[in-house]
């Protein structure tokens, strides 16, 4: 089977949540390059708008936010072929279980687990009716490697997302919809760069020393650096393409070797 990589997603309509920065933006750009019509959603307008990418402002941590996105896409485009649930966030304080409130747990679960569940529920009926579609859940290696000091709710939510993704695949793959999970390790986004600057400023060390301290906290990254957003995006671009037509129900870890177990 021959594929035109530059145009392999022609006539496909794709949504990337959290698609205005970091890995989400890289994924949106990669799908656009492959010929897809790309929609992104986030709470705020992108800092550098791209008139080739459709933007919907929505807070997906709220049911009304996900409903808005589903309704607008159905109204404007009529269907969705590719859903990349990339949105993820952890804003809870450090200090372990004792400092976390119910509200912080709830907010983290809404953003990282229930938002994808609601979007899947909104778009799956159309995909099933058409007999085709691809859903990608962007999880995290913290589902297997939780950092309880600072991201306990986030790790729990992502572990739930991985389990849910597998269960959903078992249900809808026979109906023509592929469901896959991508679990990145540390990605060098703008937010990561700002974090390194804060660590460097507070410790009085260099950026390189700050980067090493983060890798040490993860137990080391054998590859020696964080992933680049484009590297994650390239793999997602492959997974949603016809070249990956037999892949479903699987979790793929992109972490430079961070997780030490199979």
From TrEMBL:
Keywords, alphabetical: Oxidoreductase
Lineage: Bacteria, Pseudomonadati, Bacteroidota, Cytophagia, Cytophagales
Gene3D superfamilies: NAD(P)-binding Rossmann-like Domain (3.40.50.720)
Protein name, as recorded: SDR family oxidoreductase
PROSITE patterns with a match to the protein in the record: ADH_SHORT
Gene Ontology molecular function, alphabetical: oxidoreductase activity, acting on the CH-OH group of donors, NAD or NADP as acceptor
Family matches, as PANTHER family: 3-OXOACYL-[ACYL-CARRIER-PROTEIN] REDUCTASE, SHORT-CHAIN DEHYDROGENASES/REDUCTASES FAMILY MEMBER
Domain of life: Bacteria
Organism: Dyadobacter luticola
Family: Belongs to the short-chain dehydrogenases/reductases (SDR) family.
């Amino acid at each position: 089977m021959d594929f035109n990589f530059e145009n392999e997603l022609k006539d496909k309509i794709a949504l990337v949540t959290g698609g205005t920065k970091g890995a989400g933006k890289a994924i949106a750009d990669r799908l656009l390059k492959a010929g897809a019509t790309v929609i992104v959603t986030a709470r705020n307008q992108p800092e550098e708008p791209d008139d080739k990418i459709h933007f919907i402002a929505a807070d997906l941590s709220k049911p009304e936010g996900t409903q808005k996105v589903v309704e607008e896409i159905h109204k404007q485009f009529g269907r969705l072929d590719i859903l990349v649930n990339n949105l993820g966030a952890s804003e809870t304080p450090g200090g372990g279980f004792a400092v976390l409130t119910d509200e912080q747990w709830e907010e983290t679960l809404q953003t990282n687990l229930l938002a994808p569940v609601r979007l899947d529920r909104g778009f799956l009926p159309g995909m099933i009716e058409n007999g085709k579609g691809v859903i990608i859940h962007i999880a995290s290696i913290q589902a297997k490697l939780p950092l309880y000091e600072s991201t306990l709710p986030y790790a729990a939510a992502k572990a739930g997302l991985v389990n849910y993704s597998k269960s959903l695949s078992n249900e809808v793959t026979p109906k023509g919809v592929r469901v896959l999970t991508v679990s990145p390790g540390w990605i060098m986004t703008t937010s990561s760069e700002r974090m390194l600057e804060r660590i460097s400023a507070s410790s009085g060390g260099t950026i390189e020393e700050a980067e090493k301290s983060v890798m040490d906290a993860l137990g080391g990254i054998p590859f020696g650096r964080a992933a680049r957003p484009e590297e994650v995006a390239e793999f997602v671009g492959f997974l949603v393409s016809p070249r990956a037509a037999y892949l479903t129900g699987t979790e793929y870890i992109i972490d430079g070797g961070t997780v030490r177990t199979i």
